[in-house]
Amino acid sequence: IMADDKDVLRDVWFGRIPTCFTLNQDEVTEREAEAYYLLLPRVSYLTLVTDKVKKHFLKVMRTEDVEEMWFEYEGTPLKWHYPIGVLFDLHASNSVLPWSITVHFKNFPDRDLLHCPSSSVIEAHFMSSIKEADALKHKSQVVNDMQKKDHKQLWMGLQNDKFDQFWAMNRKLMEYPTEEGGFRYIPFRIYQAMSDRPFIQKLFRPVSPEGNAYTLGDLLKEMYPAAITNDGEQKRYQVVIHGIEPLLETPLQWLSEHLSHPDNFLHICVVPTPSD
Amino acid sequence: MPVSLLWAVDVYGRVYGLSTVGQQWDQCRDAQMEFKRVTAAQECCWGIACDNNIYLNVHASDLSIRYQEETYENQRWNPVDGFSERLLPSDRWQWSDVTGLQHQPLDSFQLPSSSWEWEGDWYVDENFEGEPTEKGGWTYAIDFPATYTKDKKWNSCVRRRRWLRYRRYKAMDTWAKIPSQHTTLPDPFSDISCGGWEISEEPRGRLSLWAVSLQGKVWFREGIYHQNPEGASWEEVLLPGEVVQISCGPADLVWAVLWEGQLIVREGISRDCPKGASWAIVESPSSDVGATHVAVGNNVVWVVTKDNKVWFRRGVNSHNPCGSGWISMVGEMIMINVGQNDQVWAISSEDRAVYFRQGVTSSELSGKTWKAITVPRDRDRSQSSLILSLSVFLSAGCFFCGEVRAPSVASDAESDLEKGSADGPGCLVTSTSPDTFVDEDTISHEGDAKAPCAGVALSPSQSGGPLDTQWSNVDLEEAQSQQAQTGAVLDSADTCSLSSVATYTLAMEDPYGGDEHPLWAWVSGGGCSVDSHSQLSWFNSVNTASLVQSVQSMSLSVSPAQTAAWRKQIFEQLSERTRREIDNFKHYEQAIEQSVWVKKGSMQWWRDWKPHKWIDVHFALEQFSGPEGNKDGILFIYYNYYEEKKYLHAFINEVTILVPVLNDSKHTFAIYTPERTKQRWPIRLAAATELEMHDWLALLSVSCCDSRGIQGPPSKQAIWSITCKGDIFVSEPSPGIEAVPYPTPCDQMFWRQVGGHLRIVECNSVGIVWGIGFDHTAWIYTGGYGGGLFQGLASSTDNIYTQTDVKSVYIYENQRWNPVTGYTNRGLPTDRYMWSDASGLHECTRANTKPPSPQWTWVSEWAIDYSVSGGTDREGWQYAADFPASYHGYKTMKDFVRRRRWARKCKLTTTGPWQEVPPIALSDVTILPCAAQSTVDMVPVWAISNKGDVLCRLGVTALTPAGSSWLHVGTDQPFKSISIGAASQVWAIARDGSAFYRGSVSPQNPAGDCWYHIPSPAKQKLKQVSVGRTSVFTVDENGNLWYRQGVTPSYPQGSSWEHVSNNVRKVSVGPLDQVWIIADKVQGSHSLSCGTVCHRLAVQPMQPKGQSWDYGIGVKKPNMKLSPFFVLILSFPKCNGPTK
């Protein structure tokens, strides 16, 4: 018996990346800092799930040496406002596990990263993504019909890793009129590794005017043709969502419903095929 | 939505059907000739063919149409011969009907038409009022006519016996000619309309058929019903004028159009008089333009006037069949037809397309917009596939350029037709009435049309296709001249020769393009079961430009999305990802600690202390992770007790069932724990809105399942049950449920709800589950879970379908007789309400009675119910000496009160893991409990149709649980209950309350060979039977449970009935002879309960009757208005048994 689509939601939600946090060698410490190992939820945000990491390293540091904590992987500062899974897929998808992240407490790279003084900043960012996604999907009708406590339920669900709590509400954001065959537009973002350009985000409908379902391939053809391997060519890019490579004929609407992050965006990473 | 057909006739007289699940018009290949008009009902379609005869097409059904012929053989005793055929001169005929008045020897019975065949020869009926008779089937009496008994007494002077023979209607799915009555029908028919199936349920399948002759006379076909689909005879109906067209609705509306353009309305149509009594005249909607066409439904009348304008009649109903005024509607039509549910179909005068009126609901009968049905005809499809194959050889796209040509061409063709009618040779009618001339005209041209058709020998299957092209694309006159030039085909078919083939194909420039628009002449929606909610795929325009895509999408649907490669890829990669990223790192710490989650709300609670009433409470669910990582929770209900704040709580892992409870004003549900089950006193709660209740129920249900580690679909061993409300529950049997001597108490069983609505459910241990709705629709379980109020996570995505159910709400009108005024609605002060429920205790008027819960909506008006047990008089009354008493269907001197029952239908639409098994309505079903050896092994399934026919389902396996077809097993009387045991023993209960055992049922002979009659326990009428491995249990109408003694393999019928228990509503025996019942009047510590699940303890091979009962869930309502009435109807997989 084939697994149910509902299982995909669970798998997506409970995706974890084993991570090894090490303190930047330039930090001043009172004694040597041990590495800290953690399973990070792919769908969450770095600054939301690293209280333990902070606590761990603060034990070996003096308060006056501590500024805002930030993370770096192989020289790249990690943007906390991208989902953790996206950061991993984009920068480290073919590296050896656990993912080795360096923790900094000074020299905050203002040009690369947004400040994150408290979790309310993450909440604001998360909710604005959800609202933006719903504007694309339902002209904001669903999110505007929700009450404050419903919004809170979505956020608390993410913050406390409560799948049921989150999806009890999120399913309303995933509904659409049957006769239309999908959302108005698909909320998606395409990220490119090895590029300083921000992600690609444009309007794209799930269904063609003739009523045919668009696929992941159709989207890429339009947005990022280079990502598609043509016949006879060697595969140059991997198209990665949640650490997997869906087939290009996968319907976009299905992807949006099942492989979106909790912020309701489908985050697609295009990374170079490993050379080995 | 059951699959049904929309019928239509094109201007060439070809008959097509469009299935509600189809996407193309399928030509009725059987039609040997062209038809003028058709009129459809659900089970058949009538038509007038071009030979002016009436034809009937009865849809094939697994349930054959059998007509029972009977005659009586009468004998008298004399001292010399004993009983002999020598009768007294004053006696009845030696062979007679039941009254003795009609002489009926066996050889006087003839088949009524060539559509019938005899099923077997005459035989003697050995069954007499539920009892087997002595040899020969004779029953005895003192004299004719008298009371007959099966025993011969000293004074028995006469005897008689009944002979039976069945004939079977064989002309299924074919147009069978109705023998004409030449003596009374001098002129041919020109119009026909059937309906009236809602006037009365008796006799079954009764139809009214009205016909109009060319001279404008109207005829009514008498005696059409299920067993006599052809009807008996035509009766002329007197008229105030000459009629051109008539329309008969599903109920009591009949309207007709007169030559002069007025309309006449039939009045006085009723159950007793389906033909009606008189006509009333209604003027045409427009003073200067007469009506040409009328169509009526249940409560609507639509009219087309000569100028093709469409009109809707306001205010039409049973009491006022004439209505009150006209409303002009948008659209120009040549004809219009009203089908089931007052849905409207029409043919546009502009493009001759069939239009559907969208948005017709009971509150908005005139609908919203016209929408064209754009599906192609089957031959169009075959053409299109041809185009695709051809296009390989041709430059791409060249065939797809002429897309918008068809509509304009179509209207050209029509105007040409009109011209043709003016000077055409065969033109009989000079009226400007468009539908009339089209019929006549097309028929007269039909010979021409057929000629080339017959000649196209190269591709016979598509012979019609290119022809359409010719006739619709090309100007008629031009086409004729073109043909004249070819010289091969013009006037008649016999001039057609092979040479014309070449000419024809060469003459056609583009034989395959064009003609995407069929030209329709007639449409009938009477058999088409749709309503405004139906999802129809008839409107997605398929023109040549999108043909390639439509073919693509068709091939997609052949391989379901579930098995698509992309989906498989995602599932595989996700598990690969889990292996890679998580499985090796399980020892890592989780970033987020699990914490408590609380959901709060306001609700009303049926308080524990007296006086019981609803009070406002705060309700909270606290969820947390248990020690082993499993989720658990606690429910809190905060209330005020005399100003003091208090709460009660329940642990989620102790909750055994959450049940929605029937309540016509509140959204209520009950929560049970083992403790509360013992008390017979659940926590009863009411939410403010239905949505809120569903949200809570879904959340609580997920929490309960999580705390017990249950997810996904029910296992094959699951026990299924139904509440009296129709909700479906499953329970996973615990390993100890049949443990000896201490089985798991059944008040600890956990029940979870599955979406859908059923009255009966039956399952077996290979996962085959059948259900029957309140409306007798059969359903098959699809393997999913959730649906209904369980949306999102609590529901599977696949295998969930829309399910509807319909049931009747009954109220009683009570009257008392007084010497002055006779029966009036003024009772004694001590009497019951004059409008009440069955008990008489609660007032229920027609105006204030609501559907059972807010989920139900009314779908009919209040109507008198004549099908009450005990019978009624012609007005539906039942009489009695006083309230409450036993009622009878006729008045006697001793009767001072009377009552009659009114019924109103309501409908529920929900979703669940169920798919319909059309088309036969069932009242009972049973599945062989034993596990099949493999998934392809046949599993016997037996059922009783709602008319009492015994049916055996063929082709049921674990992979195809719905099976393929029904095999009808003949019986001499209707049945009501059936059960098949683990060793294929089939037992059944007849409507007369006696039992039957079916002999020789085996895999080789799945339907067995004959019935053995088994008398019921003395003075009791049995109503239900259940068979285990060896045990046979029955329940009678007085609630007694009986065990069949003496059943052995060599004598499977057993010897006698032994009483086990009383207050039993239903019994279910398992494959290991486990016995479960639904019992009434079970005493709990707080209350008495009805509908209680009970488990028989100490059932053992040497003691199959067991010893005592263990009581599970069930509750009694202390107050009708406020509390649940909770009945579970159990069914459980039998073979592996819960002990596995």
Automatic annotation (TrEMBL), chain A:
Family of this protein: Belongs to the ATG5 family.
All copies of domain Autophagy protein ATG5 UblA, residue ranges: 12-105
UniProt subcellular location: Cytoplasm; Preautophagosomal structure membrane
This protein's UniProt keywords: Acetylation, Apoptosis, Autophagy, Cytoplasm, Immunity, Isopeptide bond, Membrane, Ubl conjugation
Biological role stated in the UniProt entry: Involved in autophagic vesicle formation.
Annotated membrane topology: Peripheral membrane protein
GO BP term (any one): heart development
Protein name, per record: Autophagy protein 5
Residue stretches making up the Autophagy protein ATG5 alpha-helical bundle region domain: 121-175
Limits of the Autophagy protein ATG5 UblB domain: 185-270
Any one Gene Ontology molecular-function term assigned to this protein's record: Atg8-family ligase activity
PANTHER family: AUTOPHAGY PROTEIN 5 (PTHR13040:SF2)
Pfam families: ATG5_HBR (PF20637), ATG5_UblA (PF20638), ATG5_UblB (PF04106)
The keyword GTP-binding is annotated on this UniProt entry: no
Quaternary structure and interacting proteins, as annotated: Conjugated with ATG12.
GO cellular component: Atg12-Atg5-Atg16 complex; autophagosome; mitochondria-associated endoplasmic reticulum membrane contact site; phagophore; phagophore assembly site membrane
TrEMBL record, chain B:
Domain Peroxin/Ferlin per the UniProt entry, residue ranges: 64-125, 137-170, 804-865, 876-909
InterPro entries, A to Z: Beta-propeller_rpt_TECPR (IPR006624), Peroxin/Ferlin (IPR006614), PH_domain (IPR001849), TECPR1-like_DysF (IPR010482), Tectonin_beta-prop (IPR051513)
Keyword Repeat: yes
Subcellular location field: Cytoplasmic vesicle, Autophagosome membrane; Lysosome membrane
Record's keyword terms, sorted: Autophagy, Cytoplasmic vesicle, Lipid-binding, Lysosome, Membrane, Repeat
BP-aspect Gene Ontology terms: autophagy
GO cellular component, one term: lysosomal membrane
SUPFAM superfamilies: Oligoxyloglucan reducing end-specific cellobiohydrolase (SSF110296), PH domain-like (SSF50729)
Gene Ontology molecular-function annotations: lipid binding
Secreted found in the keyword field: no
Signal peptide: none
PH domain location: 597-707
Principal subcellular localization: membrane
One Pfam family, short name: Tectonin
Domain of life: Eukaryota
Family: Belongs to the TECPR1 family.
Protein name: Tectonin beta-propeller repeat-containing protein 1
Organism in which the protein naturally occurs: Oreochromis niloticus (Nile tilapia)
The gene coding this protein: TECPR1
